[in-house]
């Protein structure tokens, strides 16, 4: 069983002590996101966990305590953008997050830290050229500390409509998406680095960009040293390539406050 922690909240940033306690106990109660009264107990015992996939914009609270994740295999999705505080109000300053990224990679190895440049959003003064320049700058700082970046363009949800309109966030055209992807690939894709796109309709294969499997059975098998199920997670979006996992996070518990986030 693959455990996701989590798509609905930044557990490493805001609830790491809770996670460590649940790992110590060996189980966690998880409510259904559709019906909170439906609760299941999920085992976190080492023998039951093929891998722990952690998603965060700021895993700094876990540094120094990463040994508590053992003996379970694990890896991190580290989302690192360069947006103004009004867009991502409760994340640390950029320089601090870059330093955390480097420290995390140094502690667990670059293969266990996947960089997410996500979401790529467009607003006045923050179009194609902005992302090309900002991504290249970040890549210069991070390329030695990860082997992969996953990109994703902004998705628009009914619950974020007000915030999106307030900050004049607009969809990127397919041509703009291709231009951004082409430049990102030219900067980052080489023998040591890969670029993948998360659940995108636009075909970016001509730029060497593959379709992402963020919950990646090949990486899980490599880290765990044992075969793992590869079936697609039917609970995710149709274009999502992730393997099946159990998410232990909950909506309404993330304090990052990102204006674009579906989990607010």
Description:
With 264 residues, the chain is α/β, with parallel strands linked by helices. It has one domain (2-247): pyruvate-formate lyase- activating enzyme. The chain is 28% helix and 18% strand. The chain has seven helices and ten strands. The protein has helices at residues 11-14, 16-25, 94-108, 128-142, 161-166, 174-188, 217-224, and strands at 2-5, 27-31, 39-43, 51-56, 74-79, 113-120, 148-153, 194-197, 210-211, 246-247. It has an eight-stranded parallel beta sheet. The protein is globular, with a radius of gyration of 18 Å. The two termini are 27 Å apart.
Count all strands and give the number: 10
The secondary-structure element order is: EHHEEEEHEHEHHEEHE
Structural class: alpha/beta
Distance between the termini: 27 Å
CATH class: Alpha Beta
- Can you list the strand order of the major beta sheet? 9-8-7-6-5-4-1-10
DSSP helix fraction = 25-40%
Strand-residue proportion: 15-25%
Approximate shape: globular
Average pLDDT, rounded to a whole number, is: 95
Q: With helices defined by DSSP (H or I, 4 residues minimum), what is the helix count? A: 7
Low-pLDDT segments, ≥5 res: none
């Amino acid at each position: 069983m693959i455990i996701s922690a989590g798509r609905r909240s930044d557990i490493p940033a805001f609830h790491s002590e809770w996670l460590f306690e649940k790992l110590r106990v060996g189980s966690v109660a998880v409510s259904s996101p559709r019906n909170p009264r439906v609760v299941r107990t999920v085992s976190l015992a080492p023998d039951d966990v093929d891998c722990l996939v952690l998603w965060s914009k700021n895993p700094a609270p876990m540094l120094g305590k990463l040994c508590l994740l053992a003996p379970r295999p694990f890896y991190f999705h580290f989302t690192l953008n360069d947006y103004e505080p009004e867009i991502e109000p409760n994340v640390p300053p950029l320089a601090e997050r870059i330093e955390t990224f480097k420290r995390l990679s140094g502690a667990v190895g670059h293969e266990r830290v996947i960089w997410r440049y996500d979401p790529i959003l467009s607003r006045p003064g923050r179009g194609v050229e902005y992302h090309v320049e900002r991504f290249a700058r970040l890549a210069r700082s991070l390329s030695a500390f990860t082997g992969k970046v996953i990109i994703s363009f902004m998705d628009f949800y009914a619950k974020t409509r007000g915030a999106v309109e307030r900050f004049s966030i607009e969809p990127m055209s397919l041509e703009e998406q291709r231009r951004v992807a082409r430049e990102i690939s030219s900067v980052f894709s080489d023998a040591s680095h890969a670029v993948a796109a998360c659940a995108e309709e636009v075909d970016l294969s001509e730029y060497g960009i593959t379709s992402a499997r963020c919950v990646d059975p090949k990486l899980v098998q490599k880290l765990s040293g044992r075969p793992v199920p590869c079936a697609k997670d039917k609970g995710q979006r149709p274009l999502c390539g992730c393997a099946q996992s159990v998410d232990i996070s909950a909506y309404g518990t993330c304090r990052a406050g990102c204006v674009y986030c579906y989990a607010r």
